[in-house]
Amino acid sequence: MTFRFALTLVLLAFATQAETPKPASTPATQPKPRFKKLLPQTPSTHELRTLEVAAYPEHRVELQVYVPKAEGTWPCILDIHGGGWKARQIDSDKPMMESLAQRGFVTALVSYRLATEAPYPAALHDCKAALRYLRAHARELKIDPERIGCMGGSAGGHLSGLTAATSGLTDFEGEGPHRDQSSRVKAAIVMAATQDLVTANREKTNENAQLFFGGTCAEKPAVFAAASPITHVRADMPPILFIEGEKDTLKIGRAEMMEQMRTLGIETGLHTLRQAPHPFWMSDPWCAETVDLAAAWFQKHLGKPSKP
User: Fold this and answer.
1) I want to staple 261 with a disulfide (CB 3.0 to 4.6 A). Which of 47, 150, 266, 288 is the partner?
2) Which domain holds residue 144?
3) Is 169 inside a domain boundary?
């Protein structure tokens, strides 16, 4: 083989390799959605009122209520914010509650006492007091007192589940105001929250839980059990919808609680939001999905506004 002929073959080989198209890269099966952080903005159709529920040396419990400017009577949803029981994250929940207000509800957010201010059951007592306040002032807030529900995410999801599961149980009311009013809810939503605190904390020490309950599960098993929504499942409790993020892990006790509820004939359901992180309700696209699910659930169980 001559040198010139060998060189020709080499050049042809390189040319063929260059012309051969490279295989396209395999696209991701589930491209990550682009999320948008949301900021509060009171709808022009509503007035935002800040109301004092109760004053303690450590904290003033308040309600922030979105009241429709139009005449009529509305069902009401109380939001219980998250934050590991020790951070106040009301503003993060406001966009969700503002959107729900525009779907036909009076919506309210409660600033309960945190673990750094007062140990459990202070937070639960504040949620109950907020519900009683809403009923006591139903006329001025344009609320139908027979149609009130609650919802919350993370630590707020735990408190929402516990508020619903203990509806009608006087031992959980606390000493807050308006004791002549009921703290019952007609329906609830739990987002990304543990419902069995004993199982979740039996083998580990959770600093937030230890601060909130004043000790570990090993030290205070009865307190952890009483604070677990799953402990209080019974026939006359309200229906609960569970919403979770696909990437979330705070689900301990949820499946078992749903099974117990179904056995008793209590309506329940589960929606898992695709690729959603733990605080999914604070940003779009998941906040919009959550609002759609919540609006449908509460319209079913609380009904629609009554216009004059």
Assistant:
1) 266
2) 47-302
3) yes
Contacts of 265 by beta carbon, 8 Å cutoff, 6+ apart? 235
**Both structure tokens of 76:** 């009401």
- Residue 26: pLDDT over 70: no
What pTM was computed for the model? 0.88
Distant-in-sequence, close-in-space partners of 166: CB < 8 Å, separation ≥ 6: 124, 172, 232
Count of C-beta atoms within a 10 Å radius of residue 308:
6
Confirm whether 7 is domain-assigned. no
Give the CB-side neighbour count of residue 168, counting CA atoms within 13 A: 10
Residue 258 lies in a domain: yes
CB-CB contact of 77 with 127 (8 Å)? no
Query: What domain count does the chain have?
Result: 1
- On the question of pLDDT at 4 being above 70, the answer is no
CATH number (domain holding residue 298): 3.40.50.1820
